[in-house]
Specification:
The chain has 258 residues and is an alpha/beta fold. It folds into two domains: 211 residues, 3-Layer(aba) Sandwich (Rossmann fold); 36 residues, no CATH class. It has a seven-stranded parallel β-sheet, with helices on both faces. Helix 4 links the parallel strand 4 and strand 5. Helix 1 packs parallel to helix 2 and helix 1 packs across helix 8. The termini are far apart. The mean pLDDT is 92.
Length: 258
């Protein structure tokens, strides 16, 4: 199969790791289906995909809605004819303390990051079986070392890793490869907002705050979205075909994980 025949779906493609992954995968796939809640959030990503020589398909859907996954898969198949890879990135979970987080916040975090990825993978499964495709679910290194101040982040990330492992077990018989990626502290818009607060609380500038945060985390520097995107591109490539059911950490060797 040539790259001219292939399609990848990337969720959360409006910013951060999702945007970087969509742009990187435009080098390997002819069609890159990009998702966010609003089409406007995907303008820059779509332009960069075209520059890389691939054709973007912009879909504005809220993955929190149970019916969204079926519509996304139907449109991707209608417009491109196949699905060869699915990269689940969408999902932000409130960094609220375990004893302060409301039921609504828990439900919202699960609705997008966990159930959104679960439903989309289920809906795309038959097409992925036909193409002998690949799935990546993005969680986070916090799953390996849950802490009370960010309990929901760690808990939902751990659930995603378990979900990916369950999908991979079914995928062995169906010919679908499934892995999860566990990024550590990556410089995204959301992370920068957290770092600004971290620096302000210590009375230092952002650059010094980033240095102190990295030291506290036991790493030399924070990661970049493009680095995680390269890892994702490998996991859905032919070179990684025998790799399935793996949880792949990319966190700079963060000291508080195991």
């Amino acid at each position: 199969m040539s790259a001219a025949d292939t399609t990848v779906i990337v969720t959360g493609a409006g910013r951060g790791i999702g945007r970087a992954a969509a742009i990187r995968l435009a080098r390997d796939f002819a069609h890159v289906v990009i998702l966010a809640r609003t089409a406007a959030a995907l303008d820059e990503t779509a332009a960069r995909i075209r520059e890389a020589g691939a054709q973007p398909l912009v879909i504005a859907e809220d993955l929190r809605r149970p019916e969204a996954a079926a519509r996304i898969v139907a449109l991707a198949l209608e417009k491109t004819g196949r699905i060869d890879a699915l990269v689940n990135v969408a999902g932000a979970v409130a960094p609220t303390d375990l004893f302060s987080m409301s039921d609504a916040e828990w439900d919202d975090g699960l609705a997008l990051k966990f159930h959104g990825a679960r439903r989309l993978t289920v809906q795309a499964w038959e097409a992925l079986k036909l193409s002998k495709g690949a799935v990546v679910l993005t969680s986070g290194a916090s799953a390996m070392a849950p802490k009370a101040p960010g309990a929901a982040i760690a808990t939902i990330n751990a659930a995603i890793n378990a979900l990916a492992k369950a999908f991979s077990e079914r995928g062995i018989g169906d010919g679908v490869q499934v892995n999860s990626v566990l990024p550590g502290p990556v410089v995204t818009d959301r992370r920068l907002a957290m770092l600004h607060k971290f620096a302000e609380a210590r009375g230092v500038g952002l650059e010094e705050g980033m240095r102190q945060f990295s030291t506290q985390a036991g790493i030399s520097r924070l990661g970049q979205p493009e680095e995680v995107a390269d890892l994702i591109a490998f996991l859905v490539s032919p070179a990684a075909r025998w790799m399935t059911g793996s949880m792949v950490r990319m966190d700079g060797g963060e000291a508080n994980t195991v």
